[in-house]
């Protein structure tokens, strides 16, 4: 199976790396990001509040409704000082810098009025209604608006095997795309890239897998740079859908079809039973997957099948995928 020659580049809320930048002078070190992911990716720390000129320690902040459809404001919890313009003015420049860095993903601190990606508390402008869990931190919103195809995750998602798999599949595929396809877009490069990732797309989204196939088939009808750009966005959307055990089981069954006339009846039945046990939740995916890869090597089924990134979408040390 192919190796990962260079590392992806991932932006990270700086406090998750143990840097003492929080309002109280503390940090929120995330051991997985700091000690595990850091071995396989170049991490780019960003603290929006400190980089936009706020001191450590500082007054804590919160999102408050502006009223009249005016969105949200970033206000000091005690003083009510409005930091929205300060953070947004800095943020617009910073996301341009980050766009030039060609990031492959960004991990954001949850619940933060600057970094939180979703369900951040938004307080009413007046009255004592409880806050609504409907907000996005100001920096996270700028990042999503400027770089809509960039894979984003909150640090808590990395503890969930399914969400982590979704994020890592997107990050490492985007990185491979950035290395192999985007610098010199070509139709042959697009076909080769798509061919190697077919099973990975199929595991996440059968519908988008078919859309991607149509896009590649029609690539000759549009300028190649446009085709590659549309392909890159669609590929990220496909991998953004969760790869469930049912979808994985369908992929494994699909792979089994390529062993026609190669495996004995017993070997085939053994594999089929393991795939069905996995589908029913009685088996982990690594059992049928390992046996499949074993047969793949033993029978020297090279070419298309052996190049599938489905078998190694990212380094194994980053943790098991869902149901693995
Ligand atoms: Fe800085 Fe974001 Fe961490 Fe707050 S959550 S300390 S703004 S990096």
Overview of this protein structure:
α5 (161-180) runs antiparallel to α8 and α6 (187-204) packs across α9 (245-256). The chain contains twelve helices and eight strands. The chain is elongated, with a radius of gyration of 23 Å. The two termini are 18 Å apart. By secondary structure, the chain is an alpha/beta fold. The longest helix is centred in the middle third of the chain and has 20 residues, at 161-180. Iron/sulfur cluster (SF4) binds next to α2.
Major sheet: arrangement of strands = 2-1-5-8
Distance between the termini: 18 Å
Largest sheet: 4 strands, parallel
Q: What is the typical, i.e. mean, pLDDT?
A: 93
Structural class: alpha/beta
Count the DSSP helices.
12
Count the beta strands.
8
Oligomerization status of the protein chains = single chain
What sort of overall outline do the alpha carbons produce when their principal axes are compared?
A: elongated
SSE pattern, N- to C-terminal: EHEHEEHEEEHEHHHHHHHH
- Beta-strand proportion: 5-15%
What ranges have pLDDT less than 50 throughout 5 or more consecutive residues? none
Which distinct ligands sit in these coordinates? Answer: iron/sulfur cluster
Q: Give the helix level as a range of percent.
A: 40-55%
Overall radius of gyration: 23 Å
